[in-house]
Design brief:
single chain; 113 residues; mainly beta; Immunoglobulin-like; two-stranded antiparallel sheet; 1 helix; 7 strands; 4% helix
């Protein structure tokens, strides 16, 4: 379970490589990646701190997706420990990869200029 460390008020880029059970990168063309950050389990997508879905990827052939979260989104996050979840669903609707972990949000100490 990986721990992400992010700062409120910063642009964030998170790189994911989607892999199969043998730890080999898979072609994610035609699939969907969902990514969520929430305070607790069971929070709906609409009530999460952050939720987005993607069908266009950085390098689909090699299973690579970069999740970009803009500073206008992170600026309102309170410093705390959250949960994150990423899920890849192929074009046939099968969940092929899923990961969860903790997300520590730190306060940005420098004001916007």
């Amino acid at each position: 379970m990986a721990t992400l460390k992010l700062k409120s008020g910063d642009d964030e880029s998170l790189r994911f490589t989607i892999k199969d059970a043998d730890n080999a990168a898979i072609n994610i063309s035609g699939g969907t990646i969902s990514f969520k950050i929430a305070t607790t389990l069971g929070v709906t997508n609409a009530n999460a701190e952050y939720f987005d879905q993607y069908t266009s990827f950085t390098d689909a052939t090699n299973g690579i997706h970069v999740e970009k979260i803009p500073d206008v989104t992170t600026k309102d996050w309170a410093p705390a420990e959250y949960l994150w979840q990423a899920r890849f669903v192929d074009s046939g609707g099968d969940v092929l990869s899923e990961d969860v972990g903790y997300c520590k949000i730190a306060q940005n100490l420098i004001d916007d200029e």
